[in-house]
Amino acid sequence: MKRAVTDKTSGEETELEKRYQKYKAIFFDWDGTAVLSRKAPVEEAVSAMKPLLKKGVKLVIVSGTTIENIAGGRIESYFTEEELDNLYLGLGRGAYDYAFRKGKPCIFHELMPDAKCLEKIHRICFEIHMELKNRYDLDTDIVFSRPNYCKIDLMPKALRGDNLFMQESELDMLKESLSAHGITGGLKELIKIAGETGKKFDLEIKPTCDAKYLEAGISSKSDNVNAIFQRIQKETGIKAEECAFWGDEFTGIEEGIFGSDSFMITELTKDGDFFDVSKLPGGRPEKVEWIGGGVERFLGFLREQAI
């Protein structure tokens, strides 16, 4: 059935139409896609998810954060044990993958460094921080408290508040800042620095960037998506083309460099359907359809899937 897509943020129906199939599994980002922020109410997201979980549709939350920041750390309290059997969490930028058993979250796969490897990650990020200061006089801050990576804040004076996803003005701000400090290679130069610094410590770093933060660690959302997709496929036989992937950070930050949700596109998942609800202009990976509309658009899609 062909349905017109309505942009509820403007109250107007757009010309865009999409032949949505009934997907057997839906992977989606949390902040900026399912909820406005980590502190925002989750009731609307929960009400849109419940009918699908009850029907047996697999729902997979894929987020860079940890479980404490998903619905206040109590996502299981919103669903029945039967519904939770169809819910999965891929968190920590590849660090943790959860299924639910007897109504409780259980880690079934993880990519966690040992103490020696974590120390290397911290040293690598500190060296990146110092190189950006010494070579370019660019001030950065580092968040060391993530499980298997660090966040290097490239614009510490630009505060996001409760909205931790990429903001519209940040791309221009970052470009201006890098240019002002003589970083002519832009983000590609930063990612190159991260990779080369990792090699000094004999560690392969998987750097990503959402404009404000350069993140460097041993995994990414690709690892979350692959681990959970393989588990679901083994248990149910679901194929990639029967899955949908939704996010708000597919936007091209620079030529060839895309936001964190682009890492949901892997060799295993590339035959799925990918949708971006961000309002940010810019290029997307070829596989991604930009439909905009933010959280309301995504939740509207979930409700349609339950009909």
Task: Give structural notes.
With 307 residues, the protein is α/β, with parallel strands linked by helices. It folds into two domains: 3-111 and 220-306, HAD superfamily/HAD-like (Rossmann fold); 115-217, 2-Layer Sandwich (Hypothetical Protein, Haloacid Dehalogenase-like Hydrolase, Chain: A, domain 2), CATH 3.30.1240. The chain has helices at residues 43-55, 81-84, 115-136, 170-180, 186-200, 221-236, 294-306, and strands at 3-7, 12-18, 25-28, 58-62, 87-91, 96-101, 104-110, 141-143, 149-153, 208-209, 213-217, 243-247, 252-254, 257-258, 273-276, 288-290. The strands form four sheets. The protein has an eight-stranded mixed sheet, with helices on both faces. A four-stranded antiparallel sheet has the order 8-9-11-10, covered by helices on one side. A hairpin with a 4-residue loop joins strand 1 (3-7) and strand 2 (12-18). The longest helix has 22 residues, at 115-136.
Fold blueprint:
Blueprint lengths: L2 E5 L4 E7 L6 E4 L14 H13 L2 E5 L18 H4 L2 E5 L4 E6 L2 E7 L4 H22 L4 E3 L5 E5 L16 H11 L5 H15 L7 E2 L3 E5 L3 H16 L6 E5 L4 E3 L2 E2 L14 E4 L11 E3 L3 H13 L1
Parallel strand pairs: 3-4, 3-12, 4-5, 12-15, 15-16
Antiparallel strand pairs: 1-2, 5-6, 6-7, 8-9, 9-11, 10-11, 13-14
Task: List descriptors.
16 strands; Hypothetical Protein, Haloacid Dehalogenase-like Hydrolase, Chain: A, domain 2; 8-stranded mixed sheet; disordered N terminus; 4-stranded antiparallel sheet; globular; 7 helices; alpha/beta; 2 domains; 307 residues; Rossmann fold
Biggest sheet features: 8 strands, mixed
- The amount of helix comes to 25-40%
CATH topological fold name of the largest domain: Rossmann fold
In what range is the share of β-strand residues?
Answer: 15-25%
Question: Which of globular, elongated, flat, extended, rod-shaped describes the shape?
Answer: globular
Task: Provide the gyration radius in Å.
Answer: 19 Å
The total number of structural domains is: 2
CATH C-level class of the largest domain is Alpha Beta
- Looking at the overall shape, the CATH architecture of the largest domain is 3-Layer(aba) Sandwich
User: Which class of secondary structure composition applies to the elements?
Assistant: alpha/beta
Trace the largest sheet across and list its strands.
7-6-5-4-3-12-15-16
> What is the helix tally?
7
- CATH evolutionary superfamily of the largest domain: HAD superfamily/HAD-like
DSSP summary, beta strand count: 16
Please tell me the overall pLDDT: 90
Distance between the termini: 12 Å
